[in-house]
Amino acid sequence: MEFRKPELKYIDEAVGLAIIEYKNECTNNKQLLVKNYMNKLKALISDIFNSKYGLLAIEDEKLVGYLMFWGGFEGQFGNVKGSFSPLFGSAFAGRNRQKTASLLFENLSKIMIQDGIFSFAICKYAHDKEIAESLIFNGFGIRCSDAIRDLSNVDELKMDSGCRYKEVSYQKANILLNLKNGLVKHMNDSPIYFLSEQFTDEKFAELCEKRKSRFFVAYADDRPIGYIEVEEAAETFISEDSEVLNICGMYVERKYRNSSVAKELLMYTMKRLANEGVRYLGVDCETLNPTALRFWSKYFECYTYSFVRRVDERVLG
Question: If both were cysteines, with which of 37, 144, 240, 244 could 280 make a disulfide (CB 3.0 to 4.6 Å apart)?
Fold first, then answer.
């Protein structure tokens, strides 16, 4: 096997490998959109082929795999430079895909570490067990996931918690500031340790104005006790599809978590969106957040995992 820097003559072969991986995920995940993403993937892969950090695996002048990263980003998961290989940033074929993936990372990481990049994140399909095993044996762990739900089959739910639910404009979302900061604190705490700062009124208003999200809110005793935030922006080429909206945040006060409030709030949100003609709803979930992982996996099907590895920077010493 030979490893080469990206060459434009291999773009079509790379797209072909990416499409095979996408079709395999569709076979294993019946919630996914079955669409022709060839043109979308060709544009995305052509772009990342211009990245400084990428290698092709060639056997008998045929492309059997590629791995590309964007980077390096200051302060990604710590105080070192980081990198990210998006869902379209790699694909592997041949008789031993695990070996191809492992060798590509081995050879490419040597180059990246010399440039001071010690944090690596790779997004792959959730049901690609071959590549998951390869990455795990190379020291990667799963940090987060993208999941999706077809809204054409949302069941009716009996609302028996006593709460009421309604949508709140992003321009009036300041009433949710305490809940937003509750989510920030939850993400900072054990076992998640997701470092972020509390929001001020001003910073939260700026974020709401930037995102122009939709907020679906649960009320108890005429005060908000939980919310779901939905927006168009997304992190994969699938969740960017015009038929998909995406949950980018959810929080319910701790005292209500053992009730049916979270489930009712989600069902209310899904019903509202389905009645408007929204076909799919996505969510990105930190898998190291056990509360979120248990909840979302009941109602959504994971289609990606993001694998991360942090290399000890002292290796350059």
Answer: 244
